[in-house]
Specification:
Number of domains of chain B: 3
Largest sheet of chain A: 5 strands, mixed, barrel
CATH class of the largest domain in chain B: Alpha Beta
Structural class of chain A: alpha+beta
Number of strands of chain A: 23
CATH topology of the largest domain in chain B: FAD/NAD(P)-binding domain
Distance between the termini of chain B: 58 Å
Helix content of chain A: 25-40%
Number of strands of chain B: 28
Oligomer: heterotrimer
CATH topology of the largest domain in chain A: FAD/NAD(P)-binding domain
Chains: A alpha+beta (518), B alpha/beta (440), C alpha+beta (123)
Largest interface: A-B, 58 and 52 residues
Number of helices of chain A: 13
Shape of chain A: globular
Radius of gyration of chain A: 24 Å
Radius of gyration of chain B: 23 Å
CATH superfamily of the largest domain in chain B: FAD/NAD(P)-binding domain
Shape of chain B: globular
Helix content of chain B: 10-25%
CATH class of the largest domain in chain A: Alpha Beta
Strand content of chain B: 25-35%
CATH architecture of the largest domain in chain B: 3-Layer(bba) Sandwich
Chain lengths: 518, 440, 123
């Protein structure tokens, strides 16, 4: 592993990937490093998947500015990078005439933030727009710029595009310490079954395994996009300490086909009694409800709780009484990186030159990610006097989704590659062709979750019951690793504990017993 | 060929498991000629291939077979009859449309099936009749909404069964099983025989959904405790399962605080119910029962779409494969009759609903055309609770025509009553058939 | 005199049977509510047997293992010995249902037979 870079980006979530993609426009030697096995494993992975309009940010904050800008950038970016995004609009419900002043104030705040198209809709119009919304809703704010996005798709797309423009990625590698040096920083890293991806721009992308153990990496510039760990990384170099609280949000996801119960994303007007729970269709036609907000000291505390799930279901019914909770197929929890000042901290540190924070990225972080990348890029490229790279190619094609093709196109595809006719995940209708692409493409999947997040195989109603053995077989074959080494995500998440006694005993010698003598 | 040059079959059967095989054989033996079975797996036999334990076929063959052996009997008959099948073939879409112009026949609407396979690519075919035989899937963890982390090491019992019995892989070494359905019990023994330690089987209900024989021979034989009225209330371990917490539940199935007990394990297997797999059926406009999650069918096992039949676990979850074979054979026969134009369920004949009374969750069929009921009709159903010293009663309108004593009825066992076609036809002004459980 | 408690497996009633034995002879069976319970109890107490099913490794087959069973029931106490013997068996594809893979497994007198057809892998 080369160990000197112009920039090391810590964190391969949406913020880190967006920074990497923007910076890949320049002639810079960049490494993205993540302690997890893949991109999109932390806050970026488990959230509401909402592209916020920007109405609820405090005017004048960086959050407000980047939210509105990120929202603007999302649509062109989704076309450039081929990820799924839909501007379905959002509604913020008001349940009590007494709360009207608060609704009005929120509306005015949105106007001040520059959110386009806002309108207060009265009960009758609201129920015409969304017949399944509770009769108790007396009015709502309609935010036409609100949207929904596929977070994995977006994060993976940005990372892949950065990679094919020359950015290196290193997974299963945690940063344990940072020393300030004369001409930059020395990062101490610890690897456990680390994977390094390099040379994505050469046409011969290289995936290699690195030995376990400790190592150092030198860099002129550090970008801290470490999510809930951004305070720890920051505090390694700065005397101005920051503090990030992981704030857990629990969600329930319902089966496909439930997503048309509402068309837009339904929020509840925050009141002194609480912030409320959203009900939203997902980009793939599921219905998502959540999140709760519980502070936890555990930066890995992504467990769901009975109390949390009960709260989600109960509060979701306030907005949409007919939420089909019987059709829940999974529940999950994510952690927002809540910084004490509730503001994005983006910029070069006063006491650490060329160390750029990208910290406190909680909601609306997903929406803001394109704008965060833009902002961090302009800071870093400026500080490094970077030159634009004329070979930068900003477009990327995603994995082909045969479901989106018409019959002729699908026939052509299958003729070219019959693997697109072989169904692996029958709930989400994912073919072997898509899974092979997910594993073999640049920055491809090497875990079961990696395949799932790139193709949706295993995300459906049977939750990977049928496709797990087949997907494992494909991972084993294409990566050349035994079934017993395949993981769900991190290095310790082995899916098998071994082979059955028989299968593991060597059975190479012919005619050991009488099977073929009959 | 009858539509845009597409191949036509009299009967297309979706699924080559026990239901599809029996339906195909019976349809062929009933005189249907052009039959095609579409199977998504690499071999016929369906789930039986991974059910390597014995106990199959006592009713059908009067001997105890293993799953693969039971399947093999049907598969060899299937091949003897020269029935066509396509393996590794996934049906993507089923449409039933009223025929346009003069293409219409007495067979009613034309069914178009779209499937894909490596060898043939994307193919559309048409059929006069379709038999749905896609089987069921397991309820996953998400359906239970069990709180905790989402580590590796959580499998449905059926997935674990496939990994062990087909792929030769061990999904775990220290195992807790949630749910005492038969697959869970069978896997408790299987994992134990392969050297794993099964710590406990937790069942949220106060009784097991599995057969007594499996409780004795899969759990008691190996000293595996069955914890009734218990459930898993937390899953621990961030990457791989490290422990699960099991709690007692009250009569409303809510965990009782203070009864939590932690079991250190690396694996949680779930055997918490099966759901008929009806995505294709829904797409074709087939009416689905909210109770069974399977199609609503008539005495002919015909769904709400004329010429589309259903049998086996896609219709309702069965306890014994023998009943699947029997039901599927009836569906195959009816489909063959439908093709011959003899028994096309018409709206012109009277139709009587089968109502569920006390204790009866559902019945299959759920409506009957007495004119088409033939000599006798088998009504299959399940009860909603454990009933002792009771009687299964059948009413025609308000008069009780049958009373079958039972010492015990349990939700895990499918029940049946046989109705006489003549009795239904001769009953004056029959408007409703009702099945219920009464005290003895 | 020895007393053993059993659960009858004949039907969902699951009668709790109490069997009293003396020197291996059954003295009494109580708790059963039908004759099948007594027959089961007598057999289960004096010479309980089971069919053992498992898999053995296949070399050169389209799948890595083939399912097997003991062709007849074997004494319950020999289950582990049978499983140990099964572990050592591997066969070459093709395998057909009924193929005897091991005679007299673990001295039980029962043969180990294949319960599934496994074709050879096309090279």
């Amino acid at each position: 592993m080369q160990n000197s870079y112009d920039i090391v980006i810590i964190g391969a979530g949406v913020s880190g990937a967006s920074c990497a993609r923007e910076l890949s426009r320049y002639r810079l030697n960049i490494l993205v490093i993540d302690k997890e096995a893949d991109v999109c494993c932390g806050t970026s992975k488990a959230n509401s998947a909402i592209v916020h309009s920007g109405i609820d940010c405090k005017p004048g904050t960086l959050m407000a500015k980047l939210n509105v800008r990120g929202n603007e950038l999302m649509e062109p970016l989704s076309r450039e990078l081929d990820f799924e995004f839909d501007r379905n609009g959002s509604l913020i419900l008001c349940f009590d005439e007494e709360d009207r002043p608060r609704l009005q104030a929120l509306y005015e705040q949105g106007i001040e933030n520059g959110v386009p198209g806002l309108r207060i809709v009265e009960s009758e119009e609201l129920h015409r727009m969304e017949p399944n919304v509770s009769d108790d809703a007396v009015a709502a704010i309609w935010c036409p710029t609100g949207g929904i996005v596929w977070p994995f798709g977006m994060n993976i797309a940005m990372a892949e595009n950065a990679f094919t423009n020359g950015v290196s990625f290193c997974f299963n590698t945690g940063v344990t310490g940072i020393d300030k040096e004369e001409d930059g920083y020395c990062l101490h890293v610890k690897r456990s079954k680390a994977i390094l991806w390099t040379d994505g721009n050469t046409g011969e992308p290289l995936r290699s395994s690195l030995p376990d153990g400790e190592d150092t990496v030198r860099t002129r510039c550090v970008i801290n996009a470490a999510g809930v760990y951004a305070d720890q990384i920051h505090n390694m170099v700065s005397s101005h300490k920051i503090h990030i609280t992981p704030r857990r949000g629990e969600y329930c996801l319902m089966d496909k086909g439930t997503g048309d119960i509402v068309h837009s994303t339904i929020f509840q007007l925050p009141t002194p009694k609480g912030k409320g729970i959203l009900v939203t269709p997902t980009i793939h036609g599921n219905l998502l409800i959540g999140p709760t907000a519980t502070d936890t000291p555990d930066k890995e505390g992504t467990c769901t709780t009975q109390e949390g799930l009960d709260t989600v279901m109960q509060k979701a019914r306030l907005s949409v009484p007919s939420v089909p909770t019987r059709q829940i197929i999974t529940s999950f929890a994510g952690l927002r990186a809540h910084e004490d000042g509730h503001e994005f901290l983006i910029g070069e540190l006063q006491d650490a030159p060329l160390f750029i924070d990208c910290a406190g990225i909680e909601s609306p972080g997903l929406t803001s990610a394109p704008a965060i990348g833009e902002m961090v890029c302009s800071i870093a490229a400026g500080l490094l006097n970077a030159e634009p790279d004329p070979s930068f190619n900003g477009t990327r094609k995603g994995i082909i989704d045969p479901k989106k093709l018409d019959a002729d196109e699908l026939s052509d595809l299958i003729r070219r590659d019959p693997a697109y006719a072989a169904m692996v995940c029958r709930c989400e209708m994912v073919t072997e062709g898509e899974i092979i692409d997910a594993i073999t493409r640049p920055l491809g999947a090497h875990t079961l979750d990696g395949v799932k997040q790139r193709t949706r195989a295993g995300m459906g109603r049977c939750q990977a019951g049928f496709c797990t053995p087949k997907t494992m077989e494909l991972l084993s074959r294409l990566l050349g690793i035994p079934m017993t080494e395949i993981t769900k995500n991190g290095p310790d998440s082995l899916l098998l504990t071994g082979m059955t006694d028989k299968a593991s005993s060597s059975c190479a010698a012919p005619g050991v017993s009488g099977g073929d003598n009959e | 060929m009858n539509k845009a040059g597409l191949s036509y079959y009299d009967i297309v059967i979706i699924g080559g498991g026990p239901a599809g095989l029996a339906a195909a054989i019976s349809a062929k033996e009933s005189g249907a000629d052009s039959i095609l079975v579409l199977e998504r797996d690499r071999e016929l036999g369906g789930i039986l291939n991974q059910c390597i334990h014995n106990g199959f076929g006592l009713h059908t063959f009067k001997e105890e077979l293993t799953g693969p052996e039971y399947a093999a009997r049907f598969i060899s008959r299937f091949h003897e009859l020269g029935i066509d099948c396509r393996l590794n073939t996934m049906v993507l879409d089923l449409k039933a449309e009223a025929p346009s112009g003069d293409e219409g026949s007495s067979n009613g609407c034309i069914k178009t099936i779209t499937y894909s396979s490596r060898s043939e690519g994307l193919v559309q075919i048409t059929a006069g009749a379709v038999i749905l035989a896609m089987g069921c899937r397991e309820r996953p963890r998400g359906a239970l909404n069990t709180p905790g982390y989402r580590p590796a090491g959580i499998y449905t019992a059926g997935t674990a069964q496939r990994l062990v019995n087909i792929e030769g892989c061990m999904p775990g070494r220290r195992v807790v099983i949630l749910g005492s359905g038969d697959i869970g019990l069978i896997m408790a023994r299987r994992m134990t025989l392969e050297g794993a330690k099964v710590l406990a089987v937790a069942e949220v209900m106060p009784y097991s959904g599995g057969l007594k024989r499996n409780i004795v021979q899969c759990l008691d034989d190996y000293g595996i405790p069955l914890l009734l009225s218990h459930t898993v209330t937390e899953i621990k371990g961030k990457e791989r399962v490290e422990a699960v917490v099991i709690s007692e539940v009250d009569e409303n199935r809510r965990p009782v605080p203070g009864t939590e007990k932690e079991y250190e394990c690396d694996t949680l297997l779930l055997s918490v119910g099966l759901l008929p797999e009806n995505e294709l059926s829904r797409g074709a406009g087939v009416g689905i029962s909210p109770v069974t999650s399977g199609p609503v069918v008539s005495e002919s096992l015909e769904t709400s779409v004329p010429g589309v039949f259903a049998c086996g676990n896609v219709l309702h979850v069965h306890d014994l494969v023998d009943y699947v074979s029997e039901e599927a054979a009836a569906a195959g026969k009816r489909a063959a009759e439908y093709i011959k134009g003899g028994a096309s369920a018409g709206s012109d004949t009277p139709c009587v609903p089968v109502k569920t009374g006390n204790g009866v969750r559902y019945t299959v069929p759920s409506y009957i055309h007495p004119d088409k009921a033939g000599e006798r009709i088998t009504l299959r159903f399940r009860v909603g609770d454990v009933y002792r010293d009771c009687a299964i009663c059948v009413y025609l309108n308000d008069s009780r025509i049958a009373r079958k004593k039972a010492r015990i009825l349990a939700p895990g066992e499918m029940q049946e009553v046989i109705l006489s076609g003549d009795e239904l036809r001769s009953f004056p002004d029959l408007t409703e058939i009702k099945v219920c459980i009464e005290a003895n | 005199m020895e007393t053993r408690n059993l659960t009858c497996i004949n039907c969902p009633m699951g009668c709790q049977l109490t069997v009293v034995t003396d020197g291996g002879e059954v003295v009494s069976v109580t708790g059963n509510t039908c004759p099948r319970g007594e027959i089961y109890a007598r057999k289960e107490v004096t010479h309980p047997t089971r069919i053992v099913t498992s898999t053995v490794s296949v070399s050169g087959g389209v799948i890595p293992v083939v399912s097997v069973k003991t062709a007849s029931d074997i004494p319950k106490e020999s289950i582990q010995a049978v499983m140990d013997a099964v572990s050592g068996v591997c066969v070459n594809a093709p395998v057909s249902i009924g193929d005897v893979l091991l005679e007299n497994i673990a001295g039980t007198g029962a043969a180990l037979v294949a319960t599934k057809n496994v074709a050879a892998k096309q090279l």
